[in-house]
Each structure stands twice: as C-alpha cells, then as structure tokens.
Design goal:
Length: 312
C-alpha cells in the first residue's frame, strides 16, 4: 500500500491536517505553560485551588454540554459506565491536585518528568490490564526508564514520588477513558459532576479561609478562570485529534513536558545537578527509542510498515 505523503494529499486535506496540527500544538503549548498560571492563584493553597478548578470546570463544561446539546449520552450511560466515570474522576482529581502542588511548591521539573515517562507507563498498563504484548524495542525503552528512575531516586535521595503519581494516575485515567462511551467534553463534564459536590462542600467548609472573596476582584477572576483554563486546551486537543493521525498527536504530546521542564530550569531556576541531568537524559533516550518504534510500527515515509512475516 503506498505511503500517504504531503505531496500526495489534495489541497483541502493538507489544509485540514494543518489545522489539526495547529490545534494540537496550541493545546500542548497551553498545557506546557500551566506552571506560569497556577502560582498566580497564591495565596490560595493547592487543595483550595483544586476545589475551585473542579467546581468551575463543571460549570464551564455543563454550559458547553447544554449549548452543544450533548446531554443524551448522560441519560444513556449505564451504571457500570458511571462507576468507571467515578473512578476516572478520582484519578484526574489526584493528578490535578498533585500537579498544582508540584508547581506551587517549586517541583516543576519533577512534574515534567512525570509527563515524560507517562507514555511508557501507559504501555506498561496496557500490558498488565489489556494483555497487550510488549515488543522488544518497547521493553528496552521501559528498562531504560527504570534505570533513569533509579538514578533520579539516588539524586533526590527519595523516589520521585510526584513524577510517579502523575504518570500512574494519568496513565490509569487514560486506560479508563477507553471504556467510557463519551466524547472528551462530555466525559470530563461527567467526571466533574461526580466530584464537584465534594469540592463545593469543601469550599463551604473553608469559610473565611476561602480566598475567593478575601483577596480582591483580580484573585476572584483568576479562580473563576480555572474552569476555562481547563476546558480550552481540552477542546483544542479534541479538535486536533479528529483531524490528524493519532501518531502525529502522540509526537506533539512531548511539547508540554518540554515547556514545563524549560520553565522549571530556566525561569524558576530549580536545581539540576549533573546526576539529575543524567537521569533526564536516560528518560529522553527511552522516549527516542519508544518514538522510533512507534513510527516504524505504524509506518511512515522513512519507515514503511513491514509486511506480515517480514524480518524485523
């Protein structure tokens, strides 16, 4: 089967792919710039910020669902479906909370590491829970990441807990999302609906400690904006994913942790001793191996897909 190259695409197809890549890049750039946003919400503590993000995300997404008339899937979702949504809601809450804590406690680099290793954690989860076979090259990449985590553990003097929690929570979240018959906006709206009442009660319990009304109008607007800040990159990602191949979107995903890493090193000047650079270099090597294998497996202009039975 001939490979699909840019030259073989018609003008509308090139335009469509160009729009898809633009949407994807914008989504990941916005996610990559999150470390610049969350510190603006200080003096709100991470748990309060998380609660506001959940509540205002629910409000934003509920409005979107009503405007787009996507409420029917909620009515048709089975009891098992709602259980999966609830589990996903817990996982994304853990992920969001950990990330907000990491950024506001100046562990941006460690948070970026979590999203660098996330693709390989997803491979491991697929092997464990979906009985997917681990190819040799994937096994090598995973082994390199294990070595990297050991090196970084020695460097930090502890396990990189933030990185591992972010990678495992988001990887498992992605695994559950495969089981939910809802589009991206509806799915996140359902997850927010499950967890929003708890977040709202928490904000009420905070009482006068809730910074929503005590730090001025600008702070209040920033807390309100957490819903839109959450929704915009999600909508861009969903639009891009419909227009370009999953492989291309997969390559773009590294933009976010690269920007987060750069912010941590060059803007907030987190320490990066030589041993830490070695650990990250090993992670990047593993990602290079993993990406090479993914491109070769799916077939690309430089790596045509092998025919069944062809030698590796």
């Amino acid at each position: 089967m001939p490979q699909l190259t840019t030259s073989s695409l018609t003008s509308p197809e090139v335009h469509t792919q160009g729009r898809g890549i633009t949407y994807g890049v914008l989504a990941y750039v916005l996610w990559g710039l999150f470390p610049a946003y969350w510190p603006l919400l200080v003096p709100a503590q991470p748990v309060e910020v998380l609660a506001h993000r959940i509540v205002w995300s629910f409000v934003t997404l509920a409005i979107a669902v009503v405007l787009l008339r996507r409420w029917r899937p909620f009515l048709e979702l089975s009891g098992k479906g709602w259980l999966i949504v609830t589990a996903a809601a817990v996982l994304i809450t853990v992920n969001w909370g950990t990330y907000i804590y990491a950024v506001n406690s100046k562990h941006v680099v460690e948070a970026a590491l979590g999203y660098f290793i996330n693709p390989l954690v997803s491979v491991a989860l697929g092997m464990i829970f979906l009985k997917e076979r681990l190819r040799l090259v994937q096994a090598v990449a995973f082994a390199v990441v294990v070595v990297a985590v050991i090196v970084l553990t020695v460097d930090y003097g502890r396990l990189p807990v933030i990185s591992l929690v972010l990678a495992v929570s988001f990887g498992t979240y992605g695994l559950l999302k495969k089981k939910v018959p809802l589009d991206a906006i509806s799915s996140l709206a359902a997850e927010s609906a499950v967890i929003a009442p708890i977040a709202f009660v928490y904000l009420l319990v905070l009482g006068s400690a809730n910074t929503f009304t005590t730090e001025g109008g600008g702070h209040t607007l920033l807390l309100l904006s957490t819903g839109i800040i959450t929704a915009i990159p999600l909508v861009l990602f969903g639009a891009g994913a419909r227009l370009i191949p999953l492989t291309t979107m997969g390559m773009l995903q590294y933009l976010a942790p690269v920007l987060q890493f750069a912010w941590g090193v060059f803007v907030v000047h987190e320490p990066m001793p030589p041993s830490r650079w070695i650990g990250f270099a090993l992670v990047w090597l593993a990602l290079a191996i993993f990406t090479f294998d993914a491109v070769r497996e799916r077939g690309g202009p430089a790596f045509p897909r092998r025919k069944r039975g062809a030698p590796a």
